[in-house]
Amino acid sequence: SQTVKICGVGESRAETMVKDLIDAQTNPTIATYAKTGEVHIRVTAAATDRKAAMKLIKPVVKELKSRFGNDVYSTEEDPSLEKSVVDLLQANDLTVTCAESCTGGLLSARLVNVPGASEVYKAGVITYSNKAKRRFLGVKKSTLQKYGAVSEQTAEEMAKGAALTLKADAAVAVTGVAGPDGGTEEKPVGLVYIACSVKGKVTVKKYHFSGSRGKVRESAVSAALALLRSCILEYFSKVTFGKEES
After folding, report:
1. CA-CA distance, 81 to 71, in Å (whole number)?
2. Deepest of 18, 106, 176, 205, by most Cβ within 10 A of its Cβ?
């Protein structure tokens, strides 16, 4: 077996993208597994020995990589999404910082859990209150009053402020409603905005996560890692699947 690990693509979309392969499968077989913020596709072949089985698997994995492109972060069993991000930062000599609200440090924890993260991770700021967002990240009072803490505008200013204040090449900011309370009709529980700044260019995405408070926070962290990876790859491409390339 060999596993193709994908981030930034939902389970239903991933299954749709490989439905023709699954419908036509004989040997090898293909199975999708949903993880928090990820989809893993396991390709399994039966043969007289491992070498023969891997020969059957190889063209299928190649096809999956072609279909999912940069959303594939690994074709090996061990590397995690956070490790692939740290590898990407290291290969391109980039530093990163995190500005977190609803995730409360979970994003930073995932990154620093990777051995060698100290080479790229500069600092993290947990700005839970509006006052903290203004004081430590430079979010404008007018932005918070007009759009609220959970908004595209606030997320963008959080990312810009983190990159500027902590002098990092990349910054990721997360703000949202984790629940179970605090949601409104306009901003329901599970609404999260994630902003990523890389070399001054900011990308902001809106997400709607479901589940418990813990599940929403975990989903937000995985989405933030995927967005960071995607934004870095827009500028740099020295690392794919954990290995350096020219």
Report:
1. 11
2. 176
pLDDT digits (tens, 9 = 90+) for 218-242: 999 999 999 999 999 998 865 444 4
How far apart are the C-alpha atoms of 127 and 104, rounded to whole Å?
A: 8
Residue 142, C-beta contacts closer than 8 angstroms, at least 6 positions apart: none
Alpha-helical (H) ranges within 19-151 are: 19-23, 50-68, 81-91, 106-112, 130-137, 141-147
User: Which residue's entry shows tokens 């000599």?
Assistant: 93
| CA–CA dist 108, 200 (Å, integer) | 21
For residue range 123-142, what is the model confidence (pLDDT) as tens digits? Answer: 999 999 999 999 999 999 99
30: β partners: 43
Contact between 195 and 173 under an 8 Å Cβ cutoff? The reply is: yes
Rounded distance, CA 126 to CA 172, Å?
Answer: 12
Tokens of 217: 């926070």
Take residue 36 and report the two structure tokens written for it: 């928090």
